[in-house]
Amino acid sequence: MKQSILTLALLLGGAALAQTTPTTPTTPPPTAPAPTTPAPTAPATPAQAASPQTVVAQVGTESYTLADFDRAFRIAVARVLNSQGVPYTPEMLAEFAEARPDFLTQFARDRAVYQLARRNTQVAPAQIDAQVAAARKGFASDAEFAEALKATGFDNEAELRADLERQAVVQAYLDSIKGRFTFGDALVQSFYNLNRASFNRPAEACVKHILVKTQAEGQAVLGAVQGGADFAQLAKEKSQDPGSAGEGGDLGCISPGDTVEAFDRASFNAPLNQPQLVQTQYGWHVLVVTKRNAAGLAPLSEVAPLIREQLARDAAQKYLDAQIARLNIQTNKAAVTPPATK
Description:
Layout (H helix, E strand, L loop, with lengths): L1 H16 L37 E5 L2 E4 H18 L16 H19 L6 H12 L5 H10 L5 H22 L6 H10 L5 E2 L2 E9 L2 H12 L4 H8 L3 H4 L4 E5 L6 H9 L6 E5 L2 E11 L2 E2 L2 H26 L3 E3 L11
Antiparallel strand pairs: 1-2, 1-9, 3-8, 4-5, 4-7, 6-7
């Protein structure tokens, strides 16, 4: 059951991670870029418990209540916990109480972006249905699915659907903004020349592996791979590494010292694209090195797409900030600040 809960958290988190940057565990994660100027706020002095219908944010012509805020805060806290492999329980909200006033600023900005996105962007209900179906898959009963929803911060499926819809609309909007900006080769070359130090990289080895417990299991998997078996499918079926099994065993590219010594040595010395059997303290790894990059300056041809992405993101950020600035955003931090304890 625990694995199903965490799987659900990852499924739901993917949509959020597409438009967010991970934050520290003490602050629930945002779902839109951080504001460049703070919105007007009421003094954040501790208050008596407010009514759920108390307005805590006014964004343009729309009002948001304490109940709206509490729902978003609960889901954000759950995402932080789930990212650390911990199922959410209501008791854990108290550990994040001090973050509530700051999260209100982000909450209001998120809703501002959603308002802007809704003007020209819609998501087909079938898309949300498919996401819910994917999240629902693997649970034996509605009761198990409901329990998993609770562990990821959602009180019910309706909250899940609303969150998925908002994320999809916002992501489509942000993608459309970035798509408006294109950059020629001369500008990309100039950015590269001015930021050459940023493109220096250590040596890298791009690796995939299948982790099993015994040498006999490792030899069996090695033989299967050498015989032409699908590596990704074997990884999904047999690997004991939960972090990479779902990715077909792909670990991405690692630098020297990123892994334990035996794994590190094989990654930087084994022949390319030839499966090896390597033992570490974690078990036996069927390891394949797919690519190596030498240390030094990454070539422009390799980083040009990244530069264009960065330039588009920066331009989109400025555009988005300008659009949000046109909305009148006011927040009432006193209403979300926990009462002072005596």
